[in-house]
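Figure S7 source data.
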Amino acid sequence: MKLFHINELEENQSKGFTVNNTAIFAVKRDNQIFVYKNDCPHLGITLEFQADKFLDLDNHFIECANHGALFEVENGECISGPCLGQTLEAYPFDIVDGYVEVN
Ligand code: FES
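Tokens for the predicted FE2/S2 (inorganic) cluster complex:
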């Protein structure tokens, strides 16, 4: 299933999707795409309050809007907040002809 073309997502921007009833989101950083389950390891709920807003004000970390946990974009590790040391679950994807695709 095609999600989006890599050129549709700006650098340091994020976008949410639902795939097979699973909420996921994608982030672009340094021209690379990262995809995670939209499932905060703190309480097991979705991270965002506003559609497609998964990053902090500086667009540097992934931020959980519920209690402010911050996660590294590159590996999903929580570096601040109530789930410190836990990680977002990476969601598998491929890039085919410039499109991010998931099963
Ligand atoms: S639910 Fe994400 S920090 Fe609490």
